[in-house]
Specification:
single chain, 40% helix, six-stranded mixed β-sheet, 14 strands
Length: 403
């Protein structure tokens, strides 16, 4: 298949930002239906418990939606528009994608930790299913047993619930205080039939195609890491041969790249140099743009490492280190914390990448982003403790009282 003409590097970045809904600010106030549309566009919403500022999934949605009501996410989940499962990490996914993940659920019944452990606990698994069928949805905390299992110190009942969840026998119907509430799949999806499933090959191809659509432009390795499906090279080549992925190119970029046919119009705009990215955003460390840090390095020349899992003595630039996106480039990081009692958002450090100038547009964009974000969190004040270069702090401090 003939390769599409190359596009400039910055246009490739802008293409990805457009597909991930990070290139332009939304002009209208977000509605609940917009949240579902965004999750579908992103392909997944990664869940995380860390809440130094806001829980990661809410921060992600804020970056893509602007201010919204956090209760909408729980409502969409409870209404059956979303389901929770392991994608590249634990995520909320559009319910229409359930058939794509069913083959993975079947695979996990015989492979991996839960397959091995579950094979020797079939009777107890059946008892757990019977309990839920008789009593209704349950949380792990509903079981008071102290019998510790072999994984993460979980009690045995927790491992039973997780095994059945990974196998697709149970689904998460909602979370209460971030605790999973499990119920039978047939009660959550009464119309679902196993005959509606895809084959494993069809499932994995569908996930590669979804990743290609959401990323806008991708190398083979980016698709594999985005889906957490190793050894997918053969399937990706078949998708190219079938015309379901189109060979493309980035000027000066050595690796082969591909686009989904749905992104062809955007790619043509990129060829014409017509794709613009004009936002300033402070992103979650788990934003879909950031989750593949090798891809971020290759495409954006931004070397980013999550610091929350790094020992304190080895941390660089702070603990809750968040990337800064400005006009199509990743230009720096900041370490922030929300002090809810004091109604304060404190930025401990804000550091620009080498060569990034602390211009007025960047300073203004950062102040608007931080103050709006703080307001959405219910905070009244933003304080910048340290910024590098020093000229940037002067500009930020001068602008903050005017917001």
């Amino acid at each position: 298949m003939e390769k599409l003409p190359e596009i400039p590097l910055q246009q490739a970045r802008n293409l990805m930002l457009h597909r991930l809904d990070l290139a332009q600010n939304r002009r209208k106030v977000a509605k609940k239906s917009d949240m579902l549309s965004v999750i579908r566009q992103l392909n997944f919403l990664q869940l995380d418990t860390i809440s130094v500022v806001a829980r990661a999934h809410h921060h992600i949605l804020y970056s893509h939606l602007g201010p919204y009501q956090t209760k909408w996410l729980e409502e969409l989940h409870a209404e059956g528009e979303l389901f929770e499962y392991f994608s590249h990490a634990m995520c909320l996914l559009p319910m229409e994608d359930f058939p794509i993940y069913w083959p993975e659920m079947l695979r996990r019944r015989s492979e991996g930790y839960f397959g091995t452990w579950g094979s020797s606990h079939r009777e107890k698994l059946a008892e757990m299913l019977h309990t839920i069928r008789e009593k209704g949805p349950v949380k792990s905390s509903d079981f008071k047993s102290d019998r510790a299992g072999p994984w993460w110190g979980w009690k045995e009942e927790k491992i039973l619930l997780e095994s059945l969840f990974y196998w697709g026998e149970l689904m998460i119907v909602r979370r209460e205080g971030f605790q999973r509430v499990y119920d039978l799949r047939e009660r959550v999806l009464p119309s679902w039939q196993e005959t509606d499933s895809l084959s494993m090959e069809e499932s994995r191809k569908a996930r590669f195609l979804e990743a290609a659509r959401s990323l806008g432009i991708a190398t083979e390795s980016w698709l594999i890491r985005q889906t957490y499906l190793p050894n997918g090279q053969k399937l990706i080549r078949e998708l190219v041969d079938q015309g379901k992925l189109l060979p493309a190119g980035i000027a000066g970029f050595k690796k082969a790249v591909f686009i989904h046919p749905d992104n062809l119009l955007l790619y043509e705009k990129a060829q014409a140099g017509a794709l613009k990215a004009n936002t300033t955003k402070v992103l979650s460390m788990f934003d879909p743009l950031m989750v593949d840090r090798t891809r971020v390095k290759e495409l954006f020349d931004f070397d980013y490492r999550i610091q929350v899992y790094v020992p304190k003595a080895k941390r660089q630039k702070g603990y809750y280190l968040l990337p800064i996106l400005h006009r199509g480039q990743l230009v720096g990081t900041l370490d922030a914390k929300a002090f809810r009692k004091e109604k304060l958002l404190k930025v401990f450090t804000l550091t620009l990448e080498e060569g990034v100038k602390p211009g007025d547009a960047l300073a203004k964009g950062l102040v608007i982003e931080l103050t709006n974000y703080a307001k959405w969190l219910g905070l009244n004040e933003v304080v910048i403790e340290q910024a590098e270069p020093a000229a940037l702090k002067e500009k930020l401090v001068a602008l903050l009282p005017l917001t």
